[in-house]
Amino acid sequence: MDLRRELLEAESRADQDEAERHSHLQLVRELDHNVGVPVGVAAYRLQQLIAGVRARGHHDLLRLWQLWLNELILAKRIILARSHLLIEELMAGTELKPSAETVNLMLTVLKSTPTENLAVFWPRLSALTHAKDMDVALLLLQCQERVLAELEESPEVAVHNQNLVNSLIDMHFEGHWLVAKEQLPLLLAQSLQLIQKLVTMLPDFAAQRVPELMGLVQCYLQYGAEGETHLKPRKLPPAQQSAAYGQEKEEEEQLLAQMSRPCGRKNKVRKMRSLAKQRNQAANEHHEPNPRERLVLMGNQDYGCLTGDSGENGLPSDSDQQQTESKHHRQQEAKVRISALHLLSTLTNQLPRRSFYGYWHVLFPDGDAGGSPHLLLLGLKDNNFRCRALALQVGAQLLYGSKAFLSQACSLGPSNFTPFAVSLASSVLTAYRILIAILEREYTPPVLTQCLRCLAVLVQATPFHQLEMGFVYEFVGHVKKLIKSRDPPVAVSALLVMEMLVGTSNLTPEIASSIGLAPSQRNLQMEHASTAETYQEMCDSDAEMELEEEEEQQQQQPLQNNVPNPVHTVSPSIPRNSWLLRQVLRFLEDMRIPSAVRLECFQVLQAMATHIGLLRGHQVRLSRVISAGLTDPARDVKLYAARCLDSVGYQLGRLLPEPAERELQISFWLTLLPATYQAYDSAGYSLKCALCDALSNMGAISFERLPDGQRTALLAFLSGCASDDHEETLVRVAALRAMAVYVLHPSLKTDLGFVENAAELTLRILGDSQLLARIKAAWALGNISDALVAGIPNQTERISAELLERLIQAATKSCADNDKVRANAVRALGNLLQILQVQPFGNGELMQVAMSKLLDCVTSPGNAKVKWNACYAIGNLVKHRAFFANNRLAGILFPTLCQLVVQHANFKVRTNAVGVLLQVEQRQDFSAHFPLLWRSLLDALVRSNLLESFEEYNHRDALQQQLCLAIAHLLLLARSSDLPMMRESLEEDRLEEVRATWRRVAFRIVPEQSDPLFTCSPLLEQRLQGEVNNLQRCALAFITSTLRLDP
């Protein structure tokens, strides 16, 4: 019987007057139409009908009306006008006596109500939480989620949101929904989703309720495990770091054997067999291929996991395909865990990373792979692949940014107790073991992708040099196989793991061996002979080697015909242990490989460039793949190919190539220059900037060995890019930066025409509105000024007076710009003023203005780098007596230097400020400031032992050395009349500390710089023979005895 018929029968039985019954039946006829279009209904009519039926207590009739109206609205047979009136009535009924039919109809009407009318219901709806009927409770949660999605942030809404989320959390901790049966998983999942959305909308709430929220997460991550469904969360306070982990677990012998076994193979001396023979004998010599590997490499989409009960061959068994009801129940349980993971992900985004360190033992293993449930264990054992993938994704989120925390991990510690560092190291190693186990048994592409990404983040944060070795080979062996997967996200994630591993700054012998870095190419010392035996090189198999040789022979001839390189070069074969380089180059040489994989390959090459020994000798092949990348159809691949060229070129440029390698260097650039010019023509501004940056890293050796025509073309290309007014400013300044690098190359340093051209281009960009452009232009101006100063002794022609004046004016103006601009502007201004001092047409007024600006940079508050660059520039200027022609400048300079030397927090600023005093060669230039300078130097020497910041410890020795040299310098310049004052200042409770520091510096300083300190006392003794009065003689004798360095 349909709802309409039941409703009509109920109407006929209801105790109501005929007029009302007739009205109800008339409404039924209006709503129940056979027309194919929806009928519009005024919501106030339904409001009055429901209110009247409820008032008379006809509960069965009310239920049928609500069910039928819900059916009509869902079928879109009626359209409500002013539906908020009906919602008001339904909400009033829910507040009075909630029923599933009432709330269900309210949910349906809410979904069809315009979003701008929903906010008005939120204050009342957010207060409806404690429903006794579980069906009603579930529907109320859905209603609240519907309205919450459309709310705009406001203080009033935030108050109601906070009240609701507090109520929901309290209901979880009180076990309010545990009485439910079938609805329990749905209630838990829906409420967790609502809590997650509310926490997202309340930025400060998560920090206030971390223990409660983490208690929810911990409880529901294990929902459904071993049949546990009626779980009651508990508040979870953060653990102290010292107690965050239990005692370190003893590792089983089997695990030790597994971790220590060699992965890889040694090179065989015998000749490799052909692939045909290997294929013919495969059945006799090799086991049947692992079905899991076959599924992974073919990008299998039949999601599953090789669990302990899934069959001998590792394929999904039929045991999971039971009754539909059981499967549905498992899916509902998985939704609870997924909702808990989404909540944890939201907390990860909202809370600072340090908030999770107290919960590390909850979120990650505590040293026992099979211990309490945690994220990685969920990723390993959960029966739902979406839950496994999400757990690993959240784990990667938490690990990202935790490098400082994990840097405390250390496997070595005292034997009588387990310190925190050892416990943390045990946790890290267990995390690796679990991720390796996932890679061994998983063949679901989404889970593999997330596992590899989690592994990549963990690799980036791991202090390998502080941990026991043996686990790197374990995961590299699996990653090597997955790199060849036909599923692009899996292959990209596997390459990402290797990128992070290769990019590790402190390479251990195991890492170096696993990535193919030979001992002769690394800066590593093997502690024991057994270590070298344990860490065997990870090598490609015979089949992989022979397959590559066949492909290279097919590609070699056409490539030789197409390479625009007149220099005859031979690209050496890649050693068998360099499997990663071999695989990356093979991917890049095959244009059928997906663009995402090729892009990641270029990033791996960028990481390899930091250990240039991996790429050294393979420049020809590298140039081919980078050149092909610059012409790739995918725009992102072009960009990363340019960045790869930038990194590889920079590292190659820093090398001093062997004679046999110089031709490879030239061949590398001769191949890439035409490709760079071609890629620039059709590039966007990001790619153009990257190409110009790459060209700037060519290196002086390669640049000087380019043929004259190629060098001229390169300079013309950069000059044209920098002078093109129609080009983006950032592109022009990138080209200018490359020119500023070339300015310091030997052949161009004395080329005044090129230097002046670069200077003119710099002036055109230095006043640009973009800060980044001005920063790079100021850096270029500093390099150009360095080249001009370096050429002063050898130049037969001088820079034009007009250009020099404009450069000084521009640098002076830039000294008032942003700190990053000023830091280079003061460097340039100091150099330019040196040039102006030796010019016959020197402009005195211009020099005074520029010097005043330099002093302003020293005195004004700002970046420390600005101050030390300004001090360095002034130190070069005071070498010339012209600086002291204006007493006003000296009157500002010396008191400022005294203040910097004694009080500035940055030791490098103090050191450079003292360096200015060492450049003053005559006593009269100090004038009346000499006593202040002497006392300031003594105070600074005493204060140098007071470290306010440990960061300055590395600069303390340099400061004390510079102060002692300055003290010796002032003693040699001092007049006889200065000596009593100098003795008096030395005796003022500074004597012992000055003497001790003086001796310590004198015996620590390198012999080449120690002469002023060791000769100071004998020179002072010689002055005793001169014309000095008794007071001066006593002062001189006292100072001499204080600073004497006799053993």
UniProtKB/TrEMBL annotation:
It comes from the Eukaryota. Pfam families: DUF4042. Residues 335-511 form the DUF4042 domain. InterPro entries: ARM-like, ARM-type_fold, DUF4042, HEAT6. Residues 554-567 have a biased composition (Low complexity). Signal peptide: none annotated. Residues 266-276 have a biased composition (Basic residues). Transmembrane segments: none annotated. This is HEAT repeat-containing protein 6. It comes from Drosophila mauritiana. The gene is LOC117146350.
